[in-house]
């Protein structure tokens, strides 16, 4: 018996022709932005420009967060050993896990818990958030996507929510995130802001993305930063150094605006 065929709906490559979800890739080039093309790859259809801009904004929001982030530090450590660029990036990507980049999926799941509780109990999102948070606390589960080790008001969150509103993204998950933020403040007595991972989780859930693909947004976004961090380590620092992120001193461009 011959080999059985298998199916793919993503891409089709023939001599002098490459198609992504049916669209010629050379026709997409220069006509759609990367966010729209990524959406096309994942969902099978091109989104409108506003959703594409939102997709791109989510990727830009997480592309880098300094050399002290676990993935960046891993990439720089690999670069310090004279590893090639692909190995440095791979080292960084392998450090994206539950506690670093994994909050996007976990937050989206928590927000659905709140929404489901509100519907089941016939209560407000605020009441549902209180009940879900109480359940999580009893089980020793930390709600993901809230609080930040650096930011007391993550500047990326409000911008993503603004762009989501412009793109007419279903707001239920964003409203649930805001209810959880208020619930956490009532529970612990201080504000734990929705961080960028929580914001992305809420937006992706509103766009209808499945949980299992959500952390891929962080991986794709952070890959850009890992390339930059690894290359800088290769070209500016000595090999095999003891990398201490807390001793870094920024010497790039002064603050500037678009």
Q: Could you write a compact summary of the structure shown?
A:
The chain has about 260 residues and is mainly alpha-helical.
Can you give a write-up of this model?
The chain has two domains: 41 residues, no CATH class; 196 residues, Cytochrome P450-Terp, domain 2 (Cytochrome p450-Terp, domain 2, Orthogonal Bundle). The protein contains eleven helices and three strands, in the order E-E-E-H-H-H-H-H-H-H-H-H-H-H. Helix 3 packs antiparallel against helix 8, helix 3 crosses helix 11 and helix 5 packs across helix 11. The radius of gyration is 21 Å and the shape is globular. The chain starts with 10 loop residues before the first strand and ends in a 22-residue tail after the last helix. The model has no long low-confidence stretch (mean pLDDT 95).
SSE topology:
Layout: E1 11-14, E2 17-20, E3 23-24, H1 25-28, H2 34-43, H3 49-61, H4 70-80, H5 85-93, H6 103-121, H7 125-139, H8 155-166, H9 172-188, H10 196-207, H11 211-236
Antiparallel strand pairs: 1-2, 2-3
Q: How large is the share of residues in beta strands?
A: under 5%
Quaternary assembly: single chain
CATH architecture of the largest domain: Orthogonal Bundle
Radius of gyration: 21 Å
| Count of helix runs | 11
- How many runs of DSSP E, i.e. beta strands? 3
CATH class of the largest domain: Mainly Alpha
> Biggest sheet, strands in spatial order?
1-2-3
User: What is the rounded distance between the termini?
Assistant: 63 Å
pLDDT averaged residue by residue: 95
Q: Which H/E pattern describes the elements? A: EEEHHHHHHHHHHH
The main sheet comes to: 3 strands, antiparallel
Estimated structural class: mainly alpha
Characterize the overall form.
Answer: globular
Number of domains: 2
**Helix amount:** 55-70%
Poorly predicted runs = none
Name of the CATH superfamily of the largest domain: Cytochrome P450-Terp, domain 2
- CATH fold name of the largest domain: Cytochrome p450-Terp, domain 2
